[in-house]
Specification:
A 5-stranded antiparallel beta sheet has the order 1-2-5-4-3. It is an alpha+beta fold. Helix content is about 25%, strand content about 20%.
Length: about 150
Amino acid sequence: MGQLVGVIENKSTIAGLVRFELNRNLTGSGHERFASAHEAKGPRPAAELARRLFDTGQVAGVHLYMNMVTVDLNKGFSSDGLFDVIRDMYQYWKPGMTPPAFEDLAPVGDATDAPTASGDGVGGGGGLSEAAKRIPADLLERSRAALAKWKAEH
């Protein structure tokens, strides 16, 4: 899940320097330089990419300008694997990963334990319909509260 970033790797004439050209702009029209992962703070795409590149242990510095990423490699390291780090930047689910089931994401409490409000229109009376039993208790209660507020105002 997620979209792969289109990347072209360009070797530089300067040893230890590699440039990557991306199919998307990461910095707007500004320059961003990072000399360490500690400097790459915040949720910006440029900072996130810099952190991921530094995490490989191959990178000494990163410079980003629009859709160009210039990587200064540590002595003795090659750019192997950096292409994949950049390409997979926005990919959330990779082949072989199994997404969590609904039961894993549902709250621990049972939906039937949810307090019932009178006149909720769900399942009639105080009981819950089969569909309502599948709704997490907190969401069901929020819905009931919103319905009660709307009825009071109208």
